[in-house]
Every structure is written in structure tokens, then in C-alpha cells.
Amino acid sequence: FAVRLQKEQFYSEQHSSLINKAYQTLLNPLSRGLYLLELSGVEPAQETDCDADSAFLTEIMEINEKLAESKTEDNLEEIETLIKVKQEELTREVAAAFERDDLQEAKKLLAKMKYFANLEDKLKAKKIPS
């Protein structure tokens, strides 16, 4: 595109950026699900929404505590495995909810996925030495 007109170069750059953004959105199950909700006109759950059940919130707190107390690589790997299993389970449940066209259930499950995405970010931060 170096020999093209400046207008064509600009157009190409803009579309390349949009394609990369779309690819990144569709690559991640959480962002993909949130996008599908948005396309359907459903607002994603906000952090101030209190729809999460107490058993789920207790589970999240326990994983957070384990993560905070973890000192060894083995403990971190155990937590990482747990988080991955939960994320895969939620991904399957969200897919099933979308297939049934149950957008409210998908919204609740995506809110739970956000919690596990936050745990995954905390885990990655702990694994990377400062």
C-alpha cells in the first residue's frame, strides 16, 4: 500500500484496525458474549448489580484468599487449573443460554465470567515477578 494514494492508505489503516479489534473481541469468550448481548440490546450486568448468589460469591472470596496466601508455584498452578475449569464450564453454559435465546441467563453467567476473568488477571500479576 506504500504506492497507493494517501486516502487509500488511510482507509486501509482504519479497516485493518477495525478487523484487529473485531478479531480480539471474538477471540475471548467473555468479550464475545458481552458483544452478543450488546447486539441483542441487552445491557451487560454492572458491578453494582447484586444478582450473584451468596454461594458463588463465597467461592470467589475463597479463591481470592487462596490466591493471596499462595507462596509456591504449585499452589498458583492449582488455582490456575481451578480458574480454567470454571471458565470453561461457564463458557459452555453461556453458549447453551445463547442457543436457547435465554439472554437474561447469559447475562448472569457473563457476570460470573467477569469475576473469573478478574481472578485470572490477579493470578497472572502474581506469577509475573515485579
TrEMBL record:
GO terms for biological process: [2Fe-2S] cluster assembly; protein complex oligomerization. One of its GO terms (molecular function) is protein-folding chaperone binding. GO terms for cellular component: mitochondrion. Residues 53-124 form the Co-chaperone HscB C-terminal oligomerisation domain. It is found in: Cytoplasm; Mitochondrion. Keywords: Chaperone, Cytoplasm, Mitochondrion. Its main location: cytoplasm. Belongs to the HscB family. This is HSC20 protein. The gene is Hscb.
